[in-house]
Amino acid sequence: MQNALQGYQVYQRGKYETASPHRLISMLYEGAIRFAARGAEAIGRQDHAEAHQSLVRAQAIVAELIGCLNEEQGGDLARRLRLLYLYMHDRLVEANLRKQREPADEVVRLLADIKQAWDEIGKGSPLERATS
């Protein structure tokens, strides 16, 4: 069993190490969406420990997305995305502190919209096609 777990961990690590920069951002979106949705569902079940853990993970991923922005290259779009990410981070904190589902659900919707646009942009990239 231990060998199977180690093999899986190596596979998972390789998935991230070989992904294109575009795919890595998409994976961050997927993770943030997954954990924000899991947190919202846990709030609905009144499982406060699971809600807290999931929402904190979603917050960390959104913080990582903020850190990935390059405002020099991205200009106004990067600045606007930064503000939107900060808003989403605040909403996740609010959902966690107040144990309210709606702020987390809002973040899931926002992230899903951004991810969809991001994935569409990547479809035209030769690097993305080569690594998909």
From TrEMBL:
Which keywords appear in this protein's UniProt record, sorted alphabetically? Bacterial flagellum biogenesis, Cell projection, Chaperone, Cilium, Cytoplasm, Flagellum
Q: Which organism is it from?
A: Candidatus Reconcilbacillus cellulovorans
Cross-referenced Gene3D superfamilies, in alphabetical order?
A: Flagellar protein FliS
Location(s), subcellular: Cytoplasm, Cytosol
What is the name attached to this protein's record? Answer: Flagellar secretion chaperone FliS
Q: One cellular component GO annotation, for this chain's record? A: cytosol
Task: List the InterPro entries.
Answer: FliS, FliS_sf
Family (UniProt): Belongs to the FliS family.
Q: Which GO terms describe its biological process?
A: bacterial-type flagellum assembly; bacterial-type flagellum-dependent cell motility
Domain of life per record:
Bacteria
